[in-house]
Design brief:
The structure holds two protein chains of two kinds. Chain A is mostly helical. Chain A has 18 helices and five strands. In chain B, the strands form two sheets. Chain B has a six-stranded mixed β-sheet with strand order 6-7-8-3-9-10, sandwiched between helices. Chain B has a four-stranded antiparallel β-sheet with strand order 2-1-4-5, covered by helices on one side. In chain B, helix 3 crosses helix 4 and helix 6 packs parallel to helix 7. The chains are: A mainly alpha, B alpha/beta.
Amino acid sequence: MSIAKKHGSLLQLDARTKKRNAAERRFRAYGLSAICVACAALLMLLTSIIGNGASAFRQTFISFPVTIDAAEVAAAESALLKTGAYNTILETSLLEYLTENDLLADTPVDEAFGLVSGEAGSTFRQFILANPDAAGTTFQLDLLANGRIDGYFKGRVTADAALLDKNVSPAQLQLADRLAEHGTLVRKFNWSFFTNPDASDQRPEAAGLGVAILGSIYMMLVVLFLALPIGVAASIYLEEFARKSWITDVIEVNIANLAAVPSIVYGILGLAIFINFAEFNQSSPLVGGLVLTLMTLPTIIISTRASLKSIPPSIRDAALGVGASKMQSVFHHVLPLAAPGILTGTIIGLAQALGETAPLLLIGMVAFVREYPAAWTPEAGLFGEASTALPVQVYNWTQRSDPAFVERASGAIITLLVFLLIMNAVAIYLRKKFERRW
Amino acid sequence: MTDYKISAKDVQVYYGDNHAIKDVDVQIEDKTVTAFIGPSGCGKSTFLRTLNRMNDTIDICRVTGDIRMDGEDIYDAKVDPVQLRAKVGMVFQKPNPFPKSIYDNVAYGPKIHGLARDKADLDEIVEQSLRKAALWNEAKDRLNAPGTGLSGGQQQRLCIARAIATAPEVLLMDEPCSALDPIATAQVEELIDELRQSYCVVIVTHSMQQAARVSQRTAFFHLGNLVEYGETDKIFTNPEDPRTESYISGRIG
């Protein structure tokens, strides 16, 4: 009995080979189409966000000469509504400038100042307080234009819409056109988008990410300084020192499960423990950071354990063989080799925490915050002052009615994505830098 | 009793429920090369690793019996395996230099044991160790090059240099040539013969020719038992046990 099979010519594909090749071609096609779908989705996402948000980084400014003397400063400072008094001075200067240059035409006098943002009085006051010498002189001041005017130049507001809008009139739009032609109204890069705090519904033009960026940075610091050491220490202990028993198995399963717990659950936990029990300030980056630390720990532990596992045991044997203690073998040999993996895992965990919204809503970081939180104050302690965070600011802005906030929310998303890209780039750089070849 | 460097009595090793080493009694002489031979899985490597307590790192491994080095019980509760391993160097099957420079590889042991007073002292130890390992001439111009960049045979000699840098009294070698080509093997074997002058060398090997070439005494393990132990010449020419005879003549293993 022979199992030998007669093979045909090598130049002809047999049925079986043809079938196999066809299966392989089909699989390649599936893979390729999957990638195409993913790319298309990414492209759509980016187009929509950038299309909506790119304009948030440019803003219309109105620039005209302002005169103020010391007596006016004193009067304004003693007024009940200080910014209101400064606004009056600005209005006078603007009207003077418009009449001088013959730009007012048929615009009603009381509507002219409507082109300027409600924020202008406060900007002006800050400027005067910072430069007391300016009193008694005439100087050029760059002020934010009203959000509707800005929207007009960005194509969001039209003359037809202005007829129905009680916040802006067609006459104001015509004046804006004349001012733009004259060079008084200019669009330029809007640094204040990154430095200003949030602003109310009435003045979207003044709203910025300053507080949110600062709050996010504080939280990331808390997460980095808590989650990294705790996570790495826990992983090293579990991976290198702990005897394998049912207890370590239970811990292992639990860590894996914790990584999959919905983030809002951590928010409730944080609310119960850090705010209600430990009585930390709500809305504070400290509590936010603690909650995000809990959320990030499993990610860091899992990735650290994976990178410790990937170090060949021969290195541990070698170290133990020359008489290194367990700890020396871990800290002198295993940990340096696992560092790139640990760093990558940590940064991915941080990036995940940076984009997290749900748990922060529960601990009150969704509040409207106008004041920059100090890193430390005697009353509130470290990172204890109320703040907000980038993703929460996005959530916040998308709920506002003024369409100018849609643009700003998209702008905030772009900013958040840029931060994430930077973090990932750092992760890749560190991995390349510390990677060792065997 | 004191003539022997290591004397093991009634040693049992268990991996969980698996009884890997059974009733092994063996006396190992100083300044001698002792070879452990036997088929795969016979427990020769396991027994070797009990001699510097490397098995301690395996959770499920349990060792009983009496193993004495210079008359001291190495499994005594007072013994720190770290101190033991400084006294008993080990070379592994696969060359495993640290991914560091050649210099750092050799200097690591002396550093952690505080054997060098200063840099010059450490340089001296590194040079002497590399010379003893017959690697100095090849490595002296590239001490700062990574140890992993050396060839397989050089890497293994680097591991030997690393092991002898801590001034051990016993050198354990777990199939040190199994990953090497014949030329590198010959170099390492020559080296082992020289190391016999200063150390008690115990070598596990798969190659009977190698055991015959380098060792003075040979122990034959089979299925966890020490079947026969004696002068190498006698084991290879006139074995007492039929199992030894069949292994040596190639009928089992």
